[in-house]
Amino acid sequence: MADTEDTLISRLGTLHQQLEQLENVDYMTAYYKGYSTQGDDLETIKEKIITVNAQIQRTEDQLATLDFQ
């Protein structure tokens, strides 16, 4: 069970980093320049933010079902 907990916690950290990058860098770059450093437009960045938020929620839900004893 510890592997599962560690994996989910690690995944959650990675997802939060991705979200921070999307919101603080990619979104702002696309907003002002019309595209991000990866070439994504603003709508694509918004879609990615929604997707990552959903992944975060699913991962948090999975963590909530684990018994941390």
Task: Describe what this molecule looks like in 3D.
The structure is a single chain. With 69 residues, the chain is mostly helical. The chain has a domain at 16-59. 81% of the residues lie in helices and 0% in strands. Helix 1 packs antiparallel against helix 2.
The main sheet comes to: none
Shape: elongated
**Uncertain regions: pLDDT < 50 for 5+ in a row?**
none
Q: Give a count of the beta strands, DSSP E runs of length 2 or more.
A: 0
Average residue-wise pLDDT: 93
Q: What is the terminal separation in angstroms?
A: 10 Å
Structural class: mainly alpha
What letter string, H or E per element, gives the SSE order? Answer: HH
- Classify the helix fraction into a percent range: over 70%
* Alpha plus pi helix count: 2
Radius of gyration: 15 Å
Strand content: under 5%
Looking at this protein, list some descriptive labels.
mainly alpha, 69 residues, single chain, elongated
In short:
With 69 residues, this protein is an all-alpha fold.
Secondary-structure topology with pairs:
Layout lengths: L1 H32 L8 H24 L4
Helix pairs in contact: 1-2
